[in-house]
Amino acid sequence: MQHFTTVYDVNDPLQLINEALDLKSSPYSFSKLGRNKTLGLIFLNPSLRTRLSTQKAAKMLGMEVMIMNMDKESWAIEWNDDVVMNGSTVEHIKDAAAVLGSYCDIIGIRCFPSLTDQKIDYSEKILVQLMRYCNVPVVSLESATLHPLQSLTDAITIKENWNASHKPKVVLSWAPHIKALPQAVANSFAEWMTKIDVDLTITHPKGYELCEDFTKGATIEYDQEKALQDADFVYVKNWSSYNDYGKTPEVKENWMLDLEKYKLTNKAGIMHCLPVRRDVELSSKLIDHTNSLVQKQATNRVFAAQVVLKNMLTTLNAKADTKVEHLETENV
Ligand code: CP
Question: 183 with 310, same domain?
């Protein structure tokens, strides 16, 4: 694996999920793989799970980890090329990324969208500029449009909690929130679920349609109760409008998943990526329910990060071996 920014960076998502579950049963099997390798984690936005689980995963593989809250602790970065830097930005990403790449073997970055300019956000400008200039593999820790480590975790959690022979019915259900949130978790969940062996239904109010690039293969159902019927897993998540970009069109009906609506499901596993606003997005009784998978998802973040880093380290080590062989051949 070279980079990890989308499901399309993975050759075989099902194999990666199984490999993560193997790591979960034996987390220190590759504790020397990352020896003398450094992971740099760059945050432009807050994080609890991603920051700590990725750090833990790297350490379990024997890596060193450096972390920087780049929005607060570094110089103000200029992300655009061909700019005369006589304004508020102090350092160009071209220079900063090259420096980071010289200190780190792998770089992770969290870079949320502005939610004001769809074109810029969906071009993934920040992620792309880092990848262009750092010259080392990059892991997305949640970008403007996708959160692949979260979706891999969600896929691992579904696989781990599904024993029946038929395909599970998985429902992504829009939830209310007090502010505008990115579409990244929902886009990414749809992207991953449509690549593995599940039936995905997405339910949301009119006006909250996601970008169709990510939802191909899913059923879209505007009637939440109809969507929840016989669901085996329900993933609850808020997102802002994609079409009326970053806006939160008014929703008069009650879209919060509660015990009454939950009764429509097939005793579904209840999922949320966290952080969650209790009794706004999802009923407290469901978060604390025996069928809640919310804490299991958070635990699995470690093994999602670990399997991704393991695959990247394997690729890096193979490249280093090839280089040594090449030099040895030249010196014969
Ligand atoms: N789910 C998730 O990405 O959590 P954090 O924002 O706390 O990292």
Answer: no
State how many domains the chain has: 2
Q: Looking at the structure, tell me whether residues 205 and 241 fall in a common domain.
A: yes
What's the CA-to-centroid distance between 146 and ligand 1, angstroms? 13
| pLDDT beyond 70 at 276 | yes
The encoded tokens of residue 139 equal 């892991």
Nearest one of 327, 305, 306, 325 to 317, comparing CA atoms = 325
For ligand 1, what atom is nearest to the CA of residue 147?
Answer: 3
Domain with 101, as residue range(s), is 7-146+298-328
Ligand 1 atom at shortest distance from the alpha carbon of 50: 8
Q: What is the pLDDT of residue 62?
A: 98
Exposure letters 248-264 (e unless 16+ CB within 10 A, then b):
beeeeeebbbeeebbeb
Whether residue 107 sits in one domain with residue 52 = yes
154 assigned to some structural domain: no
Looking at the whole model, is its pTM more than 0.90?
A: yes
Note whether 189 and 284 are same-domain residues: yes
The owner of tokens 């966290």 is 274
Helix, strand, or coil (residue 231): coil
Which residue carries 């050759």 as its tokens? 11
What is residue 323's three-state secondary structure?
A: helix
Mutational pocket test of ligand 1: of 44, 47, 152, the residue with most ligand atoms within 8 Å of the beta carbon:
47
Both 319 and 205 in one domain: the answer is no
Binding-site residues, ligand 1, Cβ < 6 A: 47-50, 142, 150, 273-275
User: Which residue has its alpha carbon closest to ligand 1 atom 4?
Assistant: 49
Among the listed residues 210, 213, 275, the one whose alpha carbon sits nearest the alpha carbon of residue 240: 210
> Residue 96's domain is classified under what CATH number?
3.40.50.1370
Co-location of 286 and 193 in the same domain: yes
Is the pLDDT reported for residue 61 higher than 90?
Answer: yes
215 belongs to a structural domain: yes
